[in-house]
Automatic annotation (TrEMBL):
PANTHER family: CYS OR MET METABOLISM PYRIDOXAL-PHOSPHATE-DEPENDENT ENZYME (PTHR46658:SF1). Residues 1-16 have a biased composition (Low complexity). InterPro entries: Met_g_lyase_put, PyrdxlP-dep_Trfase, PyrdxlP-dep_Trfase_major. Gene3D superfamilies: Methioning gamme-lyase, C-terminal domain (3.90.1150.60), Type I PLP-dependent aspartate aminotransferase-like (Major domain) (3.40.640.10). Residues 17-30 have a biased composition (Basic residues). This is Aluminum resistance protein. Residues 1-31 are annotated as: Disordered.
Length: 442
């Protein structure tokens, strides 16, 4: 059954037809066989054109991934894994790196389970690009919370932050509309700027996520001012949302996590760095040690197989997450809540933010999401301090892989404007069901 046919079946007139109210009062009764709350069903019906556009991008990305797998001649022996130093991995590392580099349009890539988070991979990339006396320039406002200690903005004194190594930091504030301040960026890069950091996704900021077209424009502006300045893109949550990736438009390096988009909800761990060959090698030296390069590091066979298979499935999983975000925006904005991105606006990552306005409503929203998850549905999310974050944060992530936000999750810092950031969903209907429960409490 096609996606359109399946959607039509799920949102047939049965869902939209309101039952006759009984005598003595009005009450809403869900029709027999209806999976969705009526308001959610109507929103789904209205989004069919947008869903078809997502499927178009999904098909193009899937074609690119399939072509890369065939070009690398991926075979079962690549899934065998290795032990110890990892010398006997039968070419699995090399094949996976080649596939990933091909998919994102990079000269080289290193895709490893030894990266234990996206922040870890980004940190390796930044240390590869920067040396004492150089400046790191964040061109999209403040970075994500977990990078603050890597840079040395907050804490981390004498533990090896960039600041400890003599790297200075500066940032270009966002424009009033939440996008890049193009006028400021046109004069922001100096001779001492060794790396310009572009954060593609919104993080925990109420800002626009950046599309590849905006990233291309920013890179052009940066290189015009200082051709030697390297451009590093924090690509987390953005992979496969569009039909091109930052290395295709001039980014020197990108980095991200495999338990986000490119792991396809299957990779159990890991991250990646991709881009110019010499810079990827420098990042690999930060992951391992100078001189060891990318030829070391063992991985169990089930992990190697999962990373290959997750990458193959990633376009499909990302497409479903994007549809879920469209549905969240449509339903929550109709109830009067501010959302970012706006309903039906172009998508550049899988994150959908909803401003809930107060602590209690944010906690309640996360509790509902947790209760609808397949794992740990009985667990009550509790706000608290989390390593790397400046504020109390609450997470709802009843996922098969710990922290795999691409499965289905939401989280948010307990600070104004008390926004919840929703991600993932292996099928858009997961968010449709969650929203039905959310509507009961708001």
């Amino acid at each position: 059954m096609s996606t359109a046919a399946a959607t039509a079946a799920l949102t047939s007139s049965t869902f939209a037809r309101r039952p006759r109210a009984p005598r003595g009062g009005r009450r809403t009764v869900r029709p027999r066989g209806c999976a969705f709350h009526p308001e959610v069903a109507r929103a789904v019906e209205s989004l069919q054109a947008e869903f078809r556009e997502v499927d178009r991008a999904l098909a193009l990305n899937s074609s690119r991934v399939s072509t890369a797998f065939r070009a690398a001649r991926v075979a079962p022996h690549h899934f065998g894994g290795s032990t110890g130093y990892g010398h006997d991995d039968a070419g699995g590392r090399e094949a996976l790196d080649a596939v990933f580099a091909n998919v994102v349009g990079a000269e080289a890539a290193i895709v490893r389970p030894q990266f234990f988070s996206g922040t870890h991979a980004i940190a390796c990339a930044l240390f590869a690009l920067l040396r004492p006396g150089l400046e790191l320039l964040a061109v999209a406002g403040p970075p994500y919370d977990t990078l603050e200690e890597v840079i040395g903005i907050r804490g981390s004194a004498n533990v090896g932050s960039l600041k400890d190594f003599g790297v200075t930091y500066r940032e270009v504030p966002l424009a009033a509309d939440g996008g890049l301040d193009w006028d400021a960026l046109a004069h922001a890069v100096g001779p001492e700027t060794g790396c310009a950091l572009i954060q593609r996704s919104c993080g925990y900021s109420w800002r626009k996520s950046l599309g590849v077209a905006d990233i291309r424009r920013a890179i052009d502006l940066i290189k015009m001012q200082n051709p030697n300045c390297k451009v590093m893109v924090d690509n987390c949550y953005g992979e496969f949302v569009e039909t091109s990736e930052p290395p295709m438009v001039g980014a020197d390096l990108i980095a991200g996590s495999l338990i986000k988009n490119p792991g396809g909800t299957i990779a159990p761990c890991g991250g990646y760095v991709a881009g110019k060959k010499d810079l990827v090698a420098a990042a690999a030296a930060r992951l391992s040690a100078p001189g060891l390069g990318v030829e070391f590091g063992s991985a169990p066979g089930h992990v190697m197989r999962a990373m290959f298979q997750g990458l193959f499935l990633a376009p499909q999983m990302v497409g479903e997450a994007v549809k879920g975000g469209l549905l969240i925006a449509e339903v929550m904005s109709a109830k009067g809540y501010r959302v970012q991105p706006l309903p039906r606006a172009p998508r550049h990552d899988i994150v959908q933010a909803v401003e809930l306005g107060n602590r209690e409503r944010l906690i309640a929203f996360c509790e509902v999401v947790q209760q609808t998850c397949p794992v740990g549905s009985f667990i009550k999310p509790t706000a608290g301090e989390t390593p790397g974050y400046a504020s109390e944060v609450i997470f709802a992530d009843g996922t098969f892989m710990d922290g795999s936000t691409s499965e289905l999750s939401c989280d948010g810092p307990l600070r104004d404007p008390y926004a919840v950031f929703c991600q993932g969903g292996t099928h858009w209907t997961q968010w449709a069901l969650v929203l039905g429960e959310v509507l009961k409490i708001i």
